[in-house]
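REVIEWER CHECKLIST
Item 1: Sequence provided? yes
Item 2: Single chain? yes
Item 3: Sequence as submitted:
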Amino acid sequence: MDLRLLRNFVAVAEELHFGRAAERLHMTQPPLSRAIRRLEGELGQLLLHRSPAGVSLTPAGAALYDEARELLDRADRLRSRVAAAAGPAVLTVGTLADSAAEAGTALAAAYRERHPGVRVRVREADLADPTAGLRAGLVDVALTRTPFDGTGLVTRVLRADPVGVVLRADDPLAGRADLRPDELADRPWFRLPEGADPIWRAYWSGPRGPLHDGPVVRTVHECTQAVLWNGTVGLTTLGHPLPEGLVAVPLTGKPPSRLVVARAAGDPGPLVRSFARLAAEIYRTAPPGGAGGAGSSASRTGRGAASIRR
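Item 4: Structure as written out by the authors:
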């Protein structure tokens, strides 16, 4: 016996009015009437007397009401026991480097409101893994940046950000409005760890060779310290604050960096689907420079410059 039909019947039996019962069930009256007729047809019994004065229970309806209430209560208790045995629902979100802030307060608030009983864990990956733990199966969904090998993954672009070069504030090139890659050909550049995704490394790395081989970096903090102490050059997205003493200069000819929400191919489950859908909605409506919005490219001062995000 369909529990939904029993819930519909119990609502009518308690309200003794189809209109009020439909309101209580958040449905319209015609499908509720059809549901009751279907239940009567399955049982072969008239359950309700319908008249201009209202609705009343037949003897068969009264008997069904008592049994249905008990059955629905048992079903609810069973559902609660199964949920308790399974433990609380958990969604693990991977973020890259210091990009946890990319989730933004709006996305976190929207997800909490939509799924108040879900615990969300945030796992921060280093610069060696552009999938932020997704490919290794450590997270359910990731907020990260392309390009990387997308085999077996599904990505949805949330935003495209211009890319610049991170320099020390006292660097002779720090005051430029923009720079070309060839103007930095004699500088040491950050290097990403061996084994990192080759597409990812090719996008974020500078020229190769002994002259250009700066330190290998795994975290944003290592990147900024390499610039401050050694004048190393690296790439960054524009529009976010940098530590004191660093600036970001737009780099011409470089394709933008795309912030994406990524998940494994196949059916991701309702929690991941909801996260990806909310992320797309929030980033689509976020104002430039706001939480989750694209920042200004006028970021050549230490106070209003870009943070290193990959």
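Item 5: Key structural point noted by reviewer: The chain has a mean pLDDT of 82.
Item 6: Recommendation: ____
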